[in-house]
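can u pls check wat happens w/ 1,6-di-O-phosphono-beta-D-glucopyranose
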Amino acid sequence: MVQGIIFDLDGVIVSTDDCHYRAWQRMADEEGIPFSRGVNERLRGVSRMDSLDIILERAKRSYTQEEKTAMAARKNAYYIELIGKLTPADILPGALDALERLRRRGLRIAIGSSSRNTPLILRQIGLENAFDAVADGNQITRSKPDPEVFLLATRLLGLAPAECLVVEDADAGVEAALAGGMKALGVGSAAANPRATYRARDLAALDLESILK
Ligand code: B16
Ligand code: MG
């Protein structure tokens, strides 16, 4: 029986993909590293430093750890400029309604995000007090597909993994949920993932009742 729902943030509650894409593109252009929307797709749910390593696969030279740390910080500064413009209007279709319906049914709800900018994003979209627990990139050392962030969310909710459903837009996130012993609902880019326990185009298209029955 599902008692808790753990939502990924980027791509599930709010679409920050374009902000990530534009910030990485700006940094890559400055460094003369080829970057594209296709590469950006591979960064979904992946931590900032692991994302940089994927981007650097196409670089002409290798970079020192100091250079990499500086590049990641520069990208993040560009990203923060962009997410500073997010408002509650950027919450994805169906998200608020789903949160409300889950609350009414007495379910516990949490965020499980790789992003270290989670607190800032939640404030920007007015959802800083909407969750019973928030597990994010600031509290973990291993990125999805490792289940660490979701296992932390289950502990913060006081539930067992088997009692929790994870909502994810990234294949890496679906794998993380399954590896942690949770069920996974794939939405957006993960809506066609055959490994997901359930699938829906987005939260607006989700038949919550059939999943929770
Ligand atoms: P930051 P999620 C992930 O968030 C994004 O999907 C991914 O593209 C990003 O690299 C990662 O957060 C780290 O973000 O640079 O803000 O710490 O999908 O797990 O909510
Ligand atoms: Mg995501």
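The chain has a mean pLDDT of 95.
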